[in-house]
Write a structure and sequence with these properties.
This is Aldo/keto reductase. This protein has helices at residues 49-61, 77-86, 115-129, 148-160, 174-181, 201-210, 231-239, 243-254, 267-274, 283-290; strands at residues 11-13, 19-21, 25-26, 66-68, 94-99, 101-102, 110-111, 134-139, 164-170, 188-192, 213-217, 258-260. By secondary structure, it is α/β, with parallel strands linked by helices. An eight-stranded parallel sheet has the order 3-4-5-8-9-10-11-12. Strands 1-2 form a two-stranded antiparallel sheet. The longest helix has 15 residues, at 115-129. It starts with 10 loop residues before the first strand and ends in a 6-residue tail after the last helix.
C-alpha cells in the first residue's frame, strides 16, 4: 500500500520578500543555436522573434512569476527580449538576471569577475530590462582569478545603491555560499540539478536550512532515463503524466526551497512543463526516484 503525499508547496518567499510560484521559466533556450550539450552557443537572438515573445507571454499567462535570464545570453539579447515581451512588469513578476561571464566568441564562456566590469554589466542589464532596480542579480560564476570578496563586494555596492534588491550565486559550493553570505545576504543559488545530476544535494540541503532559494537549471534533462520500461516511465504512467512532468514534479517534492526554471522555445512544451505543478507523487514514487542508484 502506497502512502499518498499532499501537493508540494506552490510558492517560495525569495529573500523573505515577494512570494513567487516555484515553477519558473529560464530563457536560455530562446536563443538561436541552443545546443543540448555544453558549451551551449546561445549566441544570437531567436530568428523567430515573435514565437519567442509568445512563449514568454504565455509563461506569465500560465502563472510563471520568476523569469531567469543573463547578460551573456545572445550578448544581452535575452534581456532585451524579456523586456520587449513583458515590460511593464506586473507587481508579482520577479525578473532575475546574471552577470560575470564574457562571450568573446560563440564557443567561449569566459569568467570575468573584476568589480568594475560587474558594476558596468549591472548597469547595462538595468537598461536592457528597463528597470531601476534588478529584483535578483546573480553572479553567473565565481572567477577564481579575482578575490571572492571583491566580486561579492561589487554586488553589495550595487545593492547598497538601490540598484539591486536581492543577490544570488550560480554553480557554487556550500563553502562559497558561506563565504559570500559573510559579506552580504544571499537570497538564491542557481546550480544544475535534476534526476540525472544530483551532485549538489548538499547545497540543496544547506539552502533549505538557510531559507535560500535553490534555482534548478536544466531541471528536466531526463534523456535516456525516460526509456520505455524504466522506472521514470513507470512512475509517469502510474500518475498519468509525461516523464518530463515527473522530473519537474520530483524537484518540487524534493525540497520546498527548490525552484525549477525549465526553458523551452515551444508553447506546447511550456504548457506541458507548467502542468507538472499539478502532478502529485506518493511516497513510493519519491523513494524510487530518489534512490541513490536511480538509473531511470
Amino acid at each position: 500500500m502506497t502512502s499518498a503525499r499532499s501537493a508540494p508547496t506552490p510558492a517560495f518567499s525569495l529573500g523573505g520578500g515577494l512570494p513567487v510560484r516555484r515553477l519558473g521559466f529560464g530563457t536560455m533556450r530562446l536563443a538561436d543555436d541552443f545546443a543540448s550539450v555544453h558549451p551551449a552557443p546561445v549566441w544570437s537572438p531567436p530568428s523567430d522573434r515573435r514565437r519567442a515573445l509568445a512563449v514568454l507571454r504565455r509563461a506569465v499567462e500560465l502563472g510563471v512569476q520568476l523569469v531567469d535570464t543573463a547578460d551573456a545570453y545572445a550578448l544581452g539579447g535575452g534581456e532585451e527580449m524579456v523586456a520587449e515581451a513583458l515590460h511593464p512588469y506586473g507587481d508579482d513578476l520577479l525578473i532575475a538576471t546574471k552577470i560575470g561571464t564574457v562571450r568573446p566568441s560563440p564557443d567561449e564562456w569566459v569568467l570575468f569577475g573584476h568589480p568594475d566590469y560587474l558594476r558596468q554589466q549591472a548597469e547595462l542589464s538595468l537598461r536592457r530590462l528597463r528597470l531601476d532596480c534588478l529584483p535578483l542579480l546573480q553572479l553567473h560564476r565565481i572567477d577564481p582569478k579575482v578575490p571572492l570578496a571583491d566580486q561579492i563586494g561589487a554586488l553589495k555596492r550595487l545593492r547598497d545603491e538601490g540598484k539591486v534588491r536581492h543577490i544570488g550565486l550560480s554553480e557554487v559550493t556550500v563553502r562559497q555560499i558561506e563565504q559570500a553570505s559573510a559579506i552580504v545576504p544571499i537570497a538564491a543559488v542557481q546550480n544544475e540539478y535534476n534526476l540525472a545530476a544530483r551532485r549538489h544535494d548538499e547545497v540543496v540541503a544547506y539552502c533549505e536550512r538557510q531559507g535560500i532559494a535553490f534555482l534548478s537549471y536544466f531541471p528536466i534533462a531526463v534523456g535516456a532515463l525516460s526509456r520505455a520500461g524504466g522506472a521514470l516511465r513507470k512512475v509517469a504512467d502510474a500518475v498519468g503524466a509525461t516523464p518530463a512532468q515527473v522530473a519537474l514534479a520530483w524537484l518540487l517534492h524534493r525540497s520546498p526551497n527548490v525552484l525549477p526554471i525549465p526553458g523551452t522555445s515551444s508553447v506546447a512544451h511550456l504548457e506541458e512543463n507548467m502542468a507538472a505543478a499539478e502532478v502529485v507523487l506518493d511516497d513510493e514514487h519519491i523513494a524510487l526516484l530518489s534512490a541513490p542508484d536511480f538509473r531511470g
